[in-house]
Design brief:
Number of domains: 1
Order of helices and strands: HHHEEHHHHHEEHH
CATH superfamily: Outer membrane efflux proteins (OEP)
Number of strands: 4
Number of helices: 10
CATH topology: Outer membrane efflux proteins (OEP)
Distance between the termini: 53 Å
Helix content: 55-70%
CATH class: Mainly Alpha
Shape: elongated
Structural class: alpha+beta
Strand order of the largest sheet: 1-2-3-4
């Protein structure tokens, strides 16, 4: 086959395809970001508005090397996060498949025929074929854009999982440390109670006290000892959960002996409420799905209109010694489909309205999340200071009660009450310390975690007042 005729045969469909593509239009509704009821400042914590919320590795603000290592290990080894990354590849591949319909499909083929009909003849031909559905109404483009929006949503879904994973690891780590501290406290109080029991038993043997005081103190000791098995079980459960979060086997998983007091409680900056629209990946995922639904409406609208398909073929017939070519155009117009097209359009329009409401709900739930965590961090900061003072008083009261009891200037009931009060005060302080740390983690998470606003993925800094109109 001559190179020149083949190039001419291939050039014709290319020129025709370019001409019709330039004349296409789109039936996708104009997209507007839905309006949301977000004010300019937070109800509580006005001091937190002085600086924008920082992104990056927020867990480093706790100044715990072991926590840094655990989060890094989790972000690299967590299986749920690995599955989310695979879903990104799936969505992007699906978008590539959907986008392929915008372009002509090219095929190369050949034919060889040998027959004996009053002499042996052989016929050979080689040809190139192009098939293309002209996208007059932007149907194929809208379907490709819809798939691309869903691919972006899968990226934001993975970022949401990453945001939640980092917070879960930090919370589980702090819980393990807190339970370890509570176990040490229960053991320490039990050791003190054992010393008092030994003293009371000596006094009872000398007739200074009755067996009633002995049994009461033994009951106090047993109460402190009975508190330890549930704490161990809770510690083990939190430790095994932490192992799974980091992608490790619970068997043989352990932590270094880190005290809870060595972990610093940061004061996250909340920035402004409108910043959540740029920071929270779950909000960005909700908008990406809304954009996809908006493109789907355009696809459903275009389905009502005529469509034109072109099938072009060009090649060379060696037997005849000439060119072979054909051009077939097929024009179709839907006339009656039993309500299928109208039903699909109504379905896509309703789906778009549903996602508008879901987007708005995502925004106000994010605002509620931050507002709740701001309140928690502030109130728990006050609670921790008050409980610290209560522990100081309880320790001093216990010391004085033991001294006075040894001197015989106070009764045994006072000593029992003081022992239990000290234990309850110190145990409560450890629990409040845990809640304080977890509230800081919750605020970091509510603000979007270690968000990084990639170009093209951040939302507008101010919401528009018009809604998406399917």
């Amino acid at each position: 086959m001559s190179a020149v005729p083949l190039r001419l045969a291939l050039l014709k469909p290319c020129c025709l395809w370019l001409a019709v593509a330039l004349g296409g239009c789109s039936l996708v509704p104009t997209y507007h970001q839905p309006s949301v009821p977000v004010t300019g400042s937070w109800t509580a914590g006005q001091a937190l508005n002085s600086a924008p919320a920082p992104g990056g590795q927020w867990w480093q603000e706790f100044h715990s090397t072991e926590l840094d290592q655990l989060v890094d290990k989790g972000l690299g080894g967590n299986f749920s996060l690995q599955a989310a990354k695979a879903r990104i590849d799936e969505a992007q591949a699906s978008a590539q498949v959907a986008g392929a319909a915008q372009y002509p499909q090219w095929n190369l083929g050949g034919n060889f025929q040998r027959q004996n009909n009053y002499g042996t003849t052989a016929k050979r031909s080689v040809f190139a074929e192009a098939t293309y559905e002209v996208d007059f109404w932007g149907k194929q483009r809208a379907a490709a854009d819809s798939a691309q929006a869903l691919a972006r949503a899968s990226v934001f879904d993975a970022q949401t999982l990453r945001m939640t994973l980092g917070a879960d690891i930090a919370n589980a780590y702090f819980q393990v440390l807190s339970l370890e501290e509570r176990l040490k406290l229960a053991q320490s109080i039990a050791d003190d109670a054992q010393q008092v029991l030994d003293l009371v038993q000596v006094q009872a043997s000398q007739g200074a006290v009755s067996n009633l005081e002995v049994e009461q103190q033994r009951n106090a000791l047993q109460t402190f000892q009975a508190a330890m098995p549930p704490l161990r079980q809770q510690r083990d459960q939190a430790l095994y959960q932490l192992a799974v979060l980091t992608g490790a086997s619970p068997q043989g998983f352990s932590l270094h002996d880190t005290a809870l007091d060595s972990v610093q409680v940061p004061a996250p900056s909340a920035g402004l409420p409108i910043g959540l629209l740029r920071q929270r990946p779950d909000i960005q995922a909700a908008e990406a799905r809304l954009q996809s639904a908006n493109f789907d409406v355009g696809v459903a609208r275009a389905a009502f209109l005529p469509n034109l398909s072109l099938d072009l073929l060009g090649g060379l017939d060696t037997l005849a010694g000439g060119q072979v070519w054909s051009a077939i155009g097929t024009l179709g117009q839907p006339v009656f489909a039993g309500g299928q097209l109208k039903g699909q359009l109504h379905l896509d329009q309703a789906h778009a309205r549903e996602l508008v409401a879901s987007y708005r709900e995502s925004v106000i739930e994010a605002v509620q999340d931050v507002q709740t965590q701001i309140s928690a961090t502030q109130e728990l900061d006050k609670s921790y200071a008050l409980n610290q003072a209560a522990v100081t008083s309880a320790r001093e009261a216990a010391r004085l009660a033991q001294v006075r009891y040894r001197l015989g200037s106070t009764d045994f009931q006072t000593l029992l009450i003081v022992e239990r009060t000290q234990y309850q005060a110190e145990d409560t302080l450890l629990q409040v310390r845990l809640q304080h740390l977890q509230a800081a983690v919750g605020l970091f998470r509510a603000l979007g975690g270690d968000f990084t606003a990639a170009p093209g993925t951040a939302l507008a800094s101010n919401p528009v007042t018009q809604d998406a109109q399917p």
